[in-house]
């Protein structure tokens, strides 16, 4: 009899495909960003695409943890660890290879998340939220105070451009290509990870006590997810630092975690596409509302209220519901089958 | 198989279980009966590790499991069906059932599934259906099948007949009797004394967290003690 508490897979009746429709659609859209610099040289569009991809990649950290019903405010902390790791490596050690830096930006936060996860993942609900927020505050404080390593309030400035096979990726188009590559890596990792452990995460999200009583060591799954979420956030931190060519504490302000959570909720936390949709909608809205000056925060808040009231499943949930209605309304659609609960099996009276 | 000695469970200042001694042998079905608040579910939850014991020993298969988390206890070979039809609503019926078989190899899981389908034919009919769309009674059966799917040495059933139609009660009773024949120990709680007493060999009547009367089920039936307490 095996009594090992290793990560185990729930034995699904029918293993899902490697990726589902939402995952493929999301990767297709993120992959399309590689084509944007070819299609346009408009700096406004390049910059906007860059911002959307960074925001969406950061929001993945929230999405992964929400798969297990854990609301994490720690994304800016891990973005900072990833971003500063890249800045330190390039400025102090002269490492500019984008692949090496990308690996470091993922691995360093993921490793830092292991002991942190061990400490905080036994918490649930509001306590987990609170502790992750405090964690971000502590990291922010360390960035300001560990001056020899982080540059303190001046940050780390004058980073060299990253390189790919010795070619400098310097101009706007190349910076976008770097961001697109990091976002694509982040989305691919997240899609494969959440799909692979889809049923385990669902079991933990719906009833972690029950899942545990069936033999799933829930905290191990949570620790693994926390680590992967940290790594993906680190990739977003790398993209942000690379865009600004500066690593500064204010780029990773604790309150920015609210934005990443908002992107995920407004886009729809039920599917990975939601993070991209939420980031695209809200980053664009922020940009548009900025033209209205002092009304901007109010308009932004109004948009969030409207979306959360009208679409509890987020933009993607609303779209899926609308598509379902259209399918049912179509004359070619088969007659609706009665819900199974209304069709008792042989002899069922209950 | 399962040995409980001087078990105490408290919720804050409230004592739910007080000084329980109980044994369940291989192939034996032991029944805990009592009214709401008697401490039956607390006792079951203490065995699977969902509540902390304030005092006492829980030994399973010769090993003290009192300090183990519930996932480790499940991997030791304890199957658990909670009270109240707790299924994973968005998962299919088959996925729900096999989620209790995490520790088994795929071939063994398939064998277990086939065995469960023999006991509960509706599982095959509904295997691809989301469990949340089943009727309450069907969900209860899925939860029980899930507890059986891991091939447990000890099965904990918390109010398995709750809200079920007689036809389902008969199916569950037959399945429990088959498990007993295979040498599996069963510890179950139930308020519906009559059908439960028919499948158990030993009964304990609980009240206020204590066992007030124990004996062979014939004795308990004979004394109509269950009715007295219920």
UniProtKB/TrEMBL annotation, chain B:
In Pfam terms, one family for this protein is ABC_tran
Instruction: Outline the extent of the ABC transporter domain.
Output: 2-230
Which top-rank group of organisms is this from? Bacteria
Against InterPro entries, the record matches this protein to: AAA+_ATPase, ABC_transporter-like_ATP-bd, ABC_transporter-like_CS, BCAA_Transport_ATP-bd_LivF, P-loop_NTPase
Key words of the record: Amino-acid transport, ATP-binding, Nucleotide-binding, Transport
Q: Which SMART domains match?
A: AAA (SM00382)
Q: Which GO terms describe its molecular function?
A: ATP binding
Q: Which family does it belong to?
A: Belongs to the ABC transporter superfamily.
Protein name per Swiss-Prot or TrEMBL: ABC transporter ATP-binding protein
Q: Tell me what organism the protein belongs to.
A: Methylobacterium indicum
């Amino acid at each position: 009899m095996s009594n090992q508490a290793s990560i185990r897979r729930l034995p699904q009746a029918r293993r899902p495909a490697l990726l589902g429709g939402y995952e493929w659609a999301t990767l297709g859209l993120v992959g399309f960003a590689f084509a944007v610099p070819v299609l346009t040289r408009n700096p406004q569009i390049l910059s906007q695409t860059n911002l959307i991809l960074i925001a969406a990649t950061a929001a993945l950290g929230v999405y992964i943890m929400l798969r297990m019903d854990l609301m994490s405010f720690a994304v800016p902390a891990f973005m900072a660890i990833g971003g500063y790791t890249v800045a330190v490596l390039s400025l102090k050690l002269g490492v500019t290879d984008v692949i090496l830096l990308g690996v470091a930006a993922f691995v360093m936060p993921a490793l830092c998340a292991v002991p942190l996860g061990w400490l905080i993942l036994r918490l649930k609900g509001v306590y987990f939220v609170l502790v992750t927020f405090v964690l971000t505050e502590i990291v922010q404080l360390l960035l300001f105070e560990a001056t020899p390593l982080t540059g303190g309030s001046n940050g780390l400035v004058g980073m060299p451009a990253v390189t790919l096979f010795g070619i400098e990726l310097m101009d706007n188009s190349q910076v976008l290509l770097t961001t697109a590559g990091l976002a694509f890596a982040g989305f691919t990792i997240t899609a494969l990870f959440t799909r692979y452990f889809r049923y385990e995460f669902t079991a933990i999200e719906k009833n972690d006590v029950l899942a545990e009583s069936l033999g799933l060591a829930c905290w191990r799954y949570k620790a693994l997810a926390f680590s992967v979420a940290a790594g993906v956030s680190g990739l977003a931190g790398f993209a942000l630092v690379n865009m600004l060519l500066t690593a500064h504490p204010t780029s990773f302000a604790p309150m920015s975690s609210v934005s990443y959570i908002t992107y995920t909720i407004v886009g729809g936390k039920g599917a990975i596409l939601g993070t991209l949709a939420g980031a695209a909608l809200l980053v664009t809205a922020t940009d548009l509302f900025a033209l209205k000056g002092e009304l901007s925060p109010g308009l932004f808040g109004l948009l969030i209220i409207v979306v959360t009231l009208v679409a509890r499943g987020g933009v993607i949930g609303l779209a899926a519901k609308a598509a379902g209605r259209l399918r049912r309304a179509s004359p070619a659609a088969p007659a609706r089958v009665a819900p199974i609960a209304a069709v008792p099996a042989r002899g069922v009276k209950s | 198989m399962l040995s409980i000695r001087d078990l105490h469970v408290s919720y804050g200042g409230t004592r739910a279980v007080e000084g329980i001694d109980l044994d369940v042998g291989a192939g034996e079905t032991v029944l805990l009966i009592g009214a709401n608040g008697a401490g039956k579910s607390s006792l079951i939850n203490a065995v699977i590790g969902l509540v902390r014991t304030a005092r006492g020993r829980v030994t399973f298969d010769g090993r003290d499991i009192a300090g183990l988390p519930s996932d480790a206890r499940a991997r030791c070979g304890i199957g658990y069906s909670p009270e109240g039809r707790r299924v994973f609503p968005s998962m299919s019926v088959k996925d729900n059932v096999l989620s209790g078989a995490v520790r088994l190899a795929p071939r063994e899981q398939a064998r277990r599934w086939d065995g469960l389908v023999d006991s509960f034919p509706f599982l095959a009919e509904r295997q691809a259906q989301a469990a949340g769309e089943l009727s309450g009674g069907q969900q209860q059966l899925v939860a029980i099948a899930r507890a059986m799917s891991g091939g447990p040495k000890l099965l904990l059933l918390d109010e398995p007949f709750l809200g079920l139609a007689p036809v389902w009660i008969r199916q569950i009773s037959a399945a429990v009797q088959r498990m007993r024949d295979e040498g599996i120990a069963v510890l179950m709680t139930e308020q519906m004394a009559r059908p439960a007493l028919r499948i158990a060999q030993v009964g304990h009547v609980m009240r206020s967290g204590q066992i007030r009367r124990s004996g062979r089920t014939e004795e308990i039936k004979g004394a109509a003690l269950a009715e007295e307490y219920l």
